[in-house]
Structures are given as C-alpha cells and as structure tokens.
Design brief:
Layout: H1 16-22, H2 26-32, E1 101-110, E2 120-124, E3 140-144, E4 150-156, E5 162-163, E6 166-167, E7 171-177, E8 184-190, E9 207-208, E10 210-213, E11 216-220, E12 223-225
Parallel strand pairs: 1-11, 1-12, 8-9
Antiparallel strand pairs: 1-4, 2-3, 2-7, 5-6, 7-8, 10-11
The chain binds fe (ii) ion.
Residues 79, 81, 171, 173 line the site of fe (ii) ion.
C-alpha cells in the first residue's frame, strides 16, 4: 500500500468523493495501522481562500445572537481520556505547535436563552496525529465563559484515532458546569469530516459548521444548558 492510494484519516474535510476515489475505507486503514493514524506528516488540506475581510478572523464568535437556545445541548460519551486538573487557559497552542490552527467558541445559554456567565468549561482533544497527552496537559484546558456567555478557545484541529477497526471523526471533548444547571459532558464534531458518517457515538446536532480563513479553521458552537 502506498500513501498515494489511501486517504489520510487525520486530514479533515476530504470530500466523500475524494475518499471514495481513493478506494479504501476506514476498515482497511485500521488493518494497516495502530491505534493512531500513520506517523507520516499531515496531508495538506485544501488551500484556505482569502475571505477578503480584514475583521478579526481569529474570533470564533462575531455575532452574540444565540444560534439556538431552547433545546439543551445533547450529551455525548466522556471517553477514556479525560484527566482532571487541566490548567486554566483558553489558548492551547504555541507558535511551534504542529497542526492547523482552530478558533472555536460561541455562547453558553440557559434554555430560556439567557446568556450564562462564569460557566466552567473543560476541553481536551487529541493532537494532530490523533494522540492524547495522558501524562501532561497538552491540548487540555479549563476556562470560564465571560459575562455575556461567550467562550473562546484557540487550538488546532485534532487528528483522528482508531476505535476498534475504524477511525473516529475529529472531535473535541468538553465538560460544562454552571450554577443552577445540570452538568454537561459532550463532544463537538466538524462538518465535512468523511468519518462522521457511521461513527457510533456522533450526534448530528453536535456537528459544527467550519469556516476556513487565512489563519486556519474557525467554528462556532452555542451550548444550551438545562436548569437543574
Ligand atoms: Fe476522543
């Protein structure tokens, strides 16, 4: 098997057609690799078009109107890699961190659409090769929503990893805790990931649209918490 005949399971946003054209699926990939994706470099993603606007492309949230705020956000499995004690921070990358930059954020509201400030969010995810740091706190952080309910994290697009014989789609893990509300443990997924289809854990309402800017990827998700 050569690299040119198989899709890179860690490269996001390959079109389904591209995957089918490559002629090989996740099952065969799983048979070729270990728990993580192959150790070769991340396949280049499509060129990021210049959107022509000079606004702050780094901001994941440029409109504070809730996208939706009546149905509580779906929960999703915690998975085996949660680690308590993550440092307080919302920037999980340094200048030399490998991987495509991701600005992700949005609002936290209650089911009455009221913005919730001081919500504690914990986020953890795999690196660009699909590995979790279980010894340290790389790509792990804890932050709080601001007074307007905004949350914002700067990180990278996570890689995929094997779950049994198939790759899980790229995803972020989060835990949210807010006074007077039920705690939420969930995951966020990226629209356009060809491994979304058929993932046994994915909930469609947790898929974020992804915008590509000159600085990387940008995604928004508004959490809705249920009163306790
Ligand atoms: Fe995971």
């Amino acid at each position: 098997m050569t690299r040119s005949t198989r899709p890179d399971p860690r490269a996001l946003f390959l079109s389904r057609r591209a995957v089918l054209r490559a002629g090989l699926g996740a099952g065969l990939l799983a048979a070729c690799g270990g728990r993580r994706g192959p150790a070769d470099a991340l396949a280049p993603t499509a060129a990021i078009p210049d959107d022509g606007d000079d606004d702050d492309d780094d901001a994941a949230l440029d409109d504070a109107t809730p996208l939706a705020c009546t149905a509580p956000t779906a929960d999703n499995i915690e998975g085996p890699f949660f680690k308590p004690g993550a440092p307080s921070r919302s920037v999980l990358v340094a200048a030399d961190t490998p991987g495509e930059r991701l600005a992700v954020g949005g609002l936290v509201t209650s089911t009455d659409c009221r913005p919730l400030g001081d919500v504690r969010l914990e986020i953890w995810h795999a690196d660009h090769r699909g590995a979790y740091d279980n010894d340290g706190f790389t790509f792990r952080g804890a932050l709080r929503s601001d007074a307007d309910g905004r949350w914002d994290v700067r990180t990278i697009l996570p890689g995929r990893y094997l779950n049994g014989r198939r790759y899980r789609p790229a995803h972020l893990h989060l835990k949210l805790r807010a006074a007077g509300h039920r705690p939420l443990t969930t995951q966020l997924y990226f629209d356009g990931d060809p491994y979304n289809d058929g993932d046994p854990f994915l909930v469609p309402s947790l898929i974020m649209p992804v915008e590509r800017t000159r600085r990387g990827a940008r995604a928004r998700f508004d959490f809705v918490l249920e009163p306790a």
